[in-house]
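Propose amino acids for all 336 sites.
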């Protein structure tokens, strides 16, 4: 048996910065309103026609991660791509990454667990490596939200939150089982699926032809919907539970945490969890202020920046935790 460990991290965000003041010019909102509710000051949006897609952003992040891992792209045995915003309805971006990176015909898996996508993807990679099936696994989280948001006053409750970007990690075998990923913990609660969802287009509900035929400007089914207060209340509970679950599995306490990297959903959620576990500002990494919620990309972007800033060191106990649409949630306990 092996553990898996992260040996390379990378991220990419578009150059186009969209501030809260920029949004106030297209919808009835303002900087104070957005910051008070979310903690977000700005986010990155892809400019149409500049060549960035969910896949290309993922590829850019992956190239950095592979280089930092000190391996060749052909050493990658498997690709896992987490996103809710694929380039195409099908095929998924995993195979597009394999093509664009020029990697040999390895397997490519797409994960659709939204905000928890990267945690789920890490768990899959971890199991593949621990069982000896693969040695080097490339895990990507990438999102292009901005082209699918309702950028009007009607959609401001959701649209001010989300941004575009990508993060990536390369995992490999670690023979010392006291190091690397110690455990992962995954959960779901589908009874609340519609509380944070994008209903159309979908084979079981409204397909593209229905929307085209109706041409109804008041149809909101093809824009994201979020019951914000309900999601918030569930998030703070599930975040806490799954962090405790991971710590207890490894006979650890909150005082053992060197760095918590939560999914960047809302700064108020992160602050609530920080207070609950009595963690200092140095023990929690947040960058939602700069990037907004980048869904499956948020944890790898944040983890990469934390590592680049020297906040992740050998021997540190690093905890990743996420909650989002599905509802799905999970945690990863890592001894760096």
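Proposal:
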């Amino acid at each position: 048996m092996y553990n898996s460990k992260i040996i390379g991290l990378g991220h990419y965000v578009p150059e186009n910065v969209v501030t809260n003041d920029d949004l106030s010019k297209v919808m009835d909102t303002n900087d104070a309103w957005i910051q008070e509710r979310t903690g977000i000051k700005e986010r990155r949006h892809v400019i149409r026609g500049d060549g960035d897609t969910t896949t290309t952003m993922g590829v850019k992040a992956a190239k950095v991660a592979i280089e930092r891992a000190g391996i060749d792209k052909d050493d990658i045995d498997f690709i896992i791509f987490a996103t809710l915003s694929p380039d195409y309805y099908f095929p998924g971006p995993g195979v597009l990454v394999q093509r664009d990176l020029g990697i040999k015909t390895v397997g490519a898996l797409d994960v659709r667990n939204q905000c928890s996508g990267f945690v789920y993807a890490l768990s899959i990679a971890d199991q593949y490596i621990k069982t000896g099936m693969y040695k080097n696994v490339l895990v990507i989280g990438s999102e292009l939200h901005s082209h699918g948001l309702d950028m009007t006053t009607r959609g401001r409750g959701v649209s001010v939150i989300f941004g575009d970007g990508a993060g990536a990690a390369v995992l490999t075998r670690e023979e010392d089982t006291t190091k690397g990923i110690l455990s992962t913990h995954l959960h779901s609660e589908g009874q609340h699926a519609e509380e944070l969802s994008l209903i159309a287009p979908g084979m079981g509900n409204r397909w593209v032809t229905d929307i085209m035929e109706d041409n109804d400007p008041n149809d909101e089914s093809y824009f994201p919907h979020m019951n914000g207060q309900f999601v918030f209340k569930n998030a703070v509970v599930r975040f806490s539970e799954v962090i405790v679950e991971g710590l207890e599995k490894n006979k650890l306490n909150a005082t053992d945490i060197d760095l918590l990297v939560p999914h960047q959903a809302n700064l108020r959620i992160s602050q609530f969890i920080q207070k609950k576990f009595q963690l200092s500002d140095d023990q929690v990494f947040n960058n939602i202020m700069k990037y907004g919620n980048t869904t499956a990309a948020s944890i790898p972007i944040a983890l990469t920046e934390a590592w680049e800033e020297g906040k992740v060191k050998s021997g540190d106990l690093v905890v990743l935790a996420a909650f989002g649409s599905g509802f799905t949630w999970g945690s990863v306990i890592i001894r760096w």
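The chain has two domains: 3-174, 180-335. The two ends are 18 Å apart (CA to CA).
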